[in-house]
């Protein structure tokens, strides 16, 4: 490069300030671009997290409402309307951290139900709420709408999530669930529920959840200011370190927000009153809550990471059989056998899970323990059967007793006309005895059928046991049977009818003696009596070393007229159970064939 005389040639150093300025400006613009992009990405991640949080709340409300309606249908109590169930569930959902309000609206943009704010029934939605709800109503195919609302007046930020609300419907009417669930069609509340759900469906309800965005907005603004300051420092200390710092900071913030959402979801799952199992697309258990572990009697660390078919009952694993086994939702009630004498009745609901592309991603199984409910149903049916039998028995006994009196009178009259020792005398004597035996059986039947007239008083149960043992001790010794009384350690007072309780104990001791008369001579013949206190109950245990009772007969020992004895009436244990139940107690029996039989009588302690 040529220059005139006296003119200085510009060197690269002369332009270095401009080059550095332009380079810094470019770097600043570049870093600002990355900072703004990172800020927007953070905002989008938070929005997605809040959408998932809103969907989780909606699913929680939907599943809770469905379970509440079904529980109401299964119960014998009066029918409660949908809004009663839903209002309680909405109130519970609105109490969750970060939730401002939860409401359900109709297609006229009016509030049907709400929680978290003061919503008047029939009130119109706000402008912002109406806008997010309109996206669901007006845009075809839109299943989820969300919007960030920033109020300029009070400088608050809210995040709205909306989706269509599907009213809870019982399975079995209109298809689905392979015909299961149709049992509700005969329920007295079924029509009321169906009409109510139909009217609700016609309103095209929309679910809106309002979440607090301020907890994220303030950190975002603070983060933006920090980014601006950091850009100035980054220009001075180096572009590479600055970009790495911002990227790492953004990543950590995203992980923290996603971790908070996951912690919220895990907390909600663990607090569910029903058991929950979830598998991935490979059929491996990834999620289980405490209720599921309790019902299935498995440790959480044993369930996680395993396939259901390898570790669960066949009835449960069939409900989690994978993508090819089913589509949609399946509902079933099954019996899970844990030991020979212990089982549980459970209600199972399984549903396939798909991602946003429609691909199978796993299954969710809800488990509810129905054992206590089934036991109560059996007890109710048993009591109804006994009541009907008692009515019939009272009528039959009344009709039979009068002819029996006539038959006995005529037999005694005939007996007086025959010589003692003659065949006729012997036959008429047998007739009189058989009439007396039949009359005693009718008396037992009437005792079982009629309501008990209890004369209760404060008695020491140890004394009643000791007196009863004295009544049967001679009879036991005649068969070389030993009665061991271990009831002298603790004296317990009960409020009972002493004669009735003695009648029960006497019947149990006689049953034990009769059971021991058939055992081999070389086997020990022992009846052991124990007394123990459990909280506010006293339990009398009578255990014999006889041949025991078979599992088939064990289920029927308290049924009237069931007996394995040739000369028994089958009313002894049934009448004993009735007497104990009328005292507010319970009687239970357990046995191992060839080893023992144990009867446990539990009675409330006297106050």
Overview of the structural elements:
With 607 residues, the protein is an alpha+beta fold. The chain has four domains: 218 residues, 2-Layer Sandwich (Beta-Lactamase); 98 residues, 2-Layer Sandwich (Beta-Lactamase); 75 residues; 148 residues, Heat Shock Protein 90 (2-Layer Sandwich). It has 16 helices and 17 strands. Strand 6 and strand 7 form a beta hairpin. Helix 1 runs antiparallel to helix 2, helix 1 packs antiparallel against helix 5 and helix 5 packs antiparallel against helix 6. The longest helix is centred in the N-terminal third of the chain and has 63 residues. The chain is elongated, with a radius of gyration of 39 Å. The N terminus is likely disordered.
Tell me the name of the CATH class of the largest domain: Alpha Beta
Strand order of the largest sheet: 2-1-5-4-3
Class per helix and strand makeup:
alpha+beta
Coarse morphology: elongated
% residues in beta strands: 15-25%
Gap between N and C termini:
117 Å
Arithmetic mean of pLDDT:
77
Let me know the CATH homologous superfamily of the largest domain: PAS domain
Count of beta strands = 17
Low-confidence runs? 1-16, 170-181
How many strands, what sense, and barrel or not for the largest sheet?
5 strands, antiparallel
The number of helical runs is 16
Radius of gyration: 39 Å
């Amino acid at each position: 490069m040529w220059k005139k005389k006296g003119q200085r040639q510009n060197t690269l150093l002369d332009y270095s300030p401009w080059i550095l300025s332009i380079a810094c400006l470019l770097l600043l613009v570049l870093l600002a671009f990355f900072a703004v992009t990172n800020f927007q990405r953070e905002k989008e991640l938070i929005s997605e997290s809040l959408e998932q949080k809103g969907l989780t709340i909606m699913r929680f409300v939907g599943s809770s409402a469905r379970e509440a309606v079904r529980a109401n249908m299964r119960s014998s109590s009066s029918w409660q309307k949908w809004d009663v169930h839903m209002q309680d569930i909405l109130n519970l959902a609105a109490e969750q951290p970060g939730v401002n309000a939860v409401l359900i609206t109709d297609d006229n943009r009016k509030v049907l139900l709400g929680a978290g704010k003061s919503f008047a029934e029939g009130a119109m939605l706000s402008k912002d709420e109406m806008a997010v709800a309109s996206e669901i109503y007006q845009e075809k195919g839109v299943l989820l709408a969300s919007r960030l609302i920033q109020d300029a007046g009070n400088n608050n930020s809210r995040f709205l999530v909306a989706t269509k609300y599907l009213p809870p419907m019982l399975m079995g009417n209109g298809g689905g669930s392979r015909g299961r669930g149709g049992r509700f069609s005969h329920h007295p509340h079924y029509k009321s529920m169906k009409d109510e759900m139909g009217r609700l469906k016609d309103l095209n309800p929309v679910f809106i959840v309002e979440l607090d965005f301020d907890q994220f907005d303030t950190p975002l603004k603070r983060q933006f200011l920090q980014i601006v300051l950091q850009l100035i420092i980054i220009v001075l200390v180096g572009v590479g370190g600055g970009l790495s710092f911002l990227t790492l900071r953004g990543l950590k913030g995203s992980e923290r927000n996603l971790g908070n959402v996951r912690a919220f979801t895990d907390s909600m799952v663990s607090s569910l009153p029903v058991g929950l199992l979830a598998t991935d697309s490979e059929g491996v258990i990834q999620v289980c809550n405490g209720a599921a572990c309790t019902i299935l009697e498995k440790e959480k660390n044993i369930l996680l990471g395993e396939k259901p078919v390898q570790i669960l009952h066949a009835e449960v694993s069939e409900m989690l059989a994978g993508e090819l086994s089913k589509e949609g939702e399946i509902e079933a009630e099954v019996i899970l056998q844990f030991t020979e004498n212990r089982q549980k009745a459970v209600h199972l609901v399984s549903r396939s899970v798909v991602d946003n592309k429609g691909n199978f991603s796993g299954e969710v199984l809800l488990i509810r323990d129905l054992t206590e409910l089934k036991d109560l149903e059996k007890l109710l049916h048993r009591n109804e059967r006994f009541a009907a039998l008692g009515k019939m028995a009272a009528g039959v006994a009344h009709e039979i007793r009068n002819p029996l009196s006539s038959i006995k009178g005529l037999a005694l009259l005939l007996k007086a006309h025959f010589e003692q020792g003659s065949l006729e005398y012997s036959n008429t004597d047998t007739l009189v005895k058989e009439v007396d035996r039949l009359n005693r059986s009718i008396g037992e039947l009437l005792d079982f059928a009629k309501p008990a007239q209890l004369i209760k008083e404060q008695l020491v149960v140890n004394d009643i046991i000791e007196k009863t043992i004295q009544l049967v001790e001679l009879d036991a010794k005649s068969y070389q049977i030993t009665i061991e009384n271990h009831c002298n350690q603790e004296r317990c007072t009960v409020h009972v009818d002493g004669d009735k309780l003695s009648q029960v104990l006497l019947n149990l001791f006689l049953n034990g003696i009769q059971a021991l008369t058939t055992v081999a001579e070389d086997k020990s013949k022992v009846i052991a009596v124990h007394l123990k206190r459990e909280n506010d109950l006293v339990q009398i245990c009578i255990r014999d070393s006889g041949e025991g009772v078979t599992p088939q007969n064990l289920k029927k020992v308290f049924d009237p007229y069931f007996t394995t004895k040739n000369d028994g009436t089958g009313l002894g244990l049934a009448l004993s159970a009735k007497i104990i139940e009328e005292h507010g107690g319970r009687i239970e029996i357990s046995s191992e064939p060839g080893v023992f039989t144990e009867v446990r009588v539990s009675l409330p302690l006297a106050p």
